[in-house]
Amino acid sequence: MEGVSTFLVAAVIGVLVNNINCAPVDPKKSTEKPTDANGVGDAGGETGLEYNRYLQEVVQVLESDPDFRQKLEKSDPEDIRTGKVARELEYVNHHVRNKLDELKRQEMERLRHLAMEEYERARGLGIPHDGRLKIPGHLDHKSPSFESEDLRKLIVQTSKDLEEADRQRKEEFKEYEMQKEFEHQNKLKTLDEEKRKAEQKAWEDAQTKHKQHPKMHHPGSRQQLEEVWEEQDHLSPDSFNPKTFFQLHDLDGNGFWDPDEVKALFIKELDKAYDPNAPEDDMAERYEEMERMREHVFNETDTNRDYLISFPEFLEQTRKQEFERDAGWNTIDEQPVYSQQEYMEFERQRQMEIQRLIDQGMLPPHPDMMRNHPRMPNEVPYGVPPQQPYYPSPPVAQQKMVGQMFSPRYFRVIPLNRD
C-alpha cells in the first residue's frame, strides 16, 4: 500500500512537472517571481488566500486590457460570481494572453515546489502518505497555457474561499462572544451574594460606558469619507473631491481599492467606539466591526463582485442618493450576535468539556480555579491589556499605517476569577 501511495503522489507531482517544464512563454523573463509594490509576494496578502499573489497579478493583467475591463464592468454580477465571464477571455489581446500564460507557469512552478516539500516532509517524518495530494482548485492543471477554464476556476474558487473565510470569521466571533458570557456567568456562581451583585453591576456599568460614544457615520457615506478627508488626510472639508480621495487611499497605486485599503478608511470611525486604552472596549469587537463595515461597503459599491473597488465603481456610488444620506451605524452591541438557544447549546458543550477535563485530572474540581479556556492560550491578540494598545503588522502596502489598523484573529482568554 505504501508503494501505491508513493506512486500516486509521484504521479500528481508529475502532472505538475509535465506542465511546468515547457519553455517559458517569454524566455527573457526570469522564473523568479518579482515582488510588486503592494507586497503581493506574501502568501496571504490582502485577501488572506494562499494563492493571493497569483490572483492579484491575474486581475492586474486582465484589467490592463481596456476592452476586457469594459466588458467586466458591464457584466452581470452573477456571471462574474459563477465564472461565466471567463468566456470573454478569448477576446483579450495576444500580449495579455502571453502575460497570463507566464503567470500560470510561475504558479504551477510554485505549486510543484509546495507538493515536493510536502512529500519530502512527510517522508522525513516517517508519515506514510495516503496519496491524496490536494489538486489546486484555482487553476486548470491539465493545460500549460492560461485558458478560459483557468479564469473560471480562479473566479469560482476565490469567491468560494472568501465567502467561507467570512462565514468562519463570523462563527468564531459568535463563539468568542458566547465564551465571554459563559465565563462571566461562571464567575458569578463562585461569588457570594454581595460580591455577585457588585460584579454584575460592574459588568453592566462597563457595557453602559462602552455605549457612550459619538454617533458613528454610515460606512462609505459622504459624511464618513469627508471626516477621513478632513481628520486623516488633513484637507479642507470644503474641497472634498472623489477622484483625489480615491487616489489618496489607493495605497499601492494600482487603480483599485482592495479590502485592506477599504478597511483603512474606517480607522477614525472605529476610534469613536473602541479605545484600546479603555477596559470597557473590546478590541476583538473592534476588529469584527471593521470587517462588517468592509462587507457593507463592498456589497454597496463592488458592483461586479470581483472583490476590488475600481474608481468607476466608487464614482458611481458617490452619485447615488444613498451616498448623501448618513443613516448612522449600529455597533455590534446593539444587535444580538447569538440566540438564547445557541448559547444554551454552547454552555452545555462547555460544561461537558470542563467535566471531562476534571475527570481526567487536567483541571481542579472547583470551576473558580480554572483560569483559562483549556484550548486557548492566555495571549490576547485582540484583548490586550487596556493600558497597552495593540498594533499588528499590516500588509506591506500599508506600512505607513502601522499603529492604526487592527487585524488579528479572535479569542482572548477571560479568567473565571479576576480577584
UniProtKB/TrEMBL annotation:
Primary localisation category: cytoplasm
Domain NUCB1-like N-terminal: residue ranges: 21-158
Classification via Pfam families: NUCB1_N
Record membrane topology: Peripheral membrane protein
Keyword match Protein biosynthesis: no
Residues of the signal peptide: 1-22
TM ranges: none
GO molecular function, one term: calcium ion binding
Highest rank taxon of the organism: Eukaryota
Alphabetically ordered keywords of this record: Calcium, Cytoplasm, DNA-binding, Golgi apparatus, Guanine-nucleotide releasing factor, Membrane, Metal-binding, Phosphoprotein, Repeat, Secreted, Signal
Basic residues biased stretches: 209-220
SUPFAM superfamilies linked: EF-hand
Compartments, record wording: Cytoplasm; Golgi apparatus; Membrane; Secreted
Compositional bias per record (Basic and acidic residues), positions renumbered to this chain: 192-208
Coiled-coil region(s): none
Record's protein name: EOG090X0B17
Organism whose genome encodes this protein: Daphnia magna
